[in-house]
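Peptidase S1 domain-containing protein
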Amino acid sequence: VSPAFPTDNPAVKPIRLRQDVATGGIKCTVSGWGLLDEKENTTPQILQFAIARLISYEECRSKYSNIPTASIKPGMICANNHRRGQAACYGDSGGPLQCGGLLTGVMSGGGQKCASTEHPDVYTDVAYYKKWINRQISKGKDEL
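Predicted structure tokens:
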């Protein structure tokens, strides 16, 4: 990466990857620079975050069963925030889902509306793809 990340700042540090499958009910934090309001197309001046809870794979599949184009598959995890307006929106894709200080998911999608209480946010499950992620990290180190 050029320029390099500032490694002398105590607020900047790598996050550990979750190695085990996360279970439903775990409290997590989602953060991002996505839209504050999808209708007004406004973006934040500071990093936004919300608290969410993981839900089970079965519950997530059930909540998306009424959307024919949505398919929850292995390797996906879901988190829900029951407070309207406090969840992921357009522009948050690629952002972290942190649970217990571990990178647990990477934002990949959600319902048809931002911050929907009906459809949970969908993340790529870091533990599911840990072998692939670690291979990519190793490749990157070899290129340095």
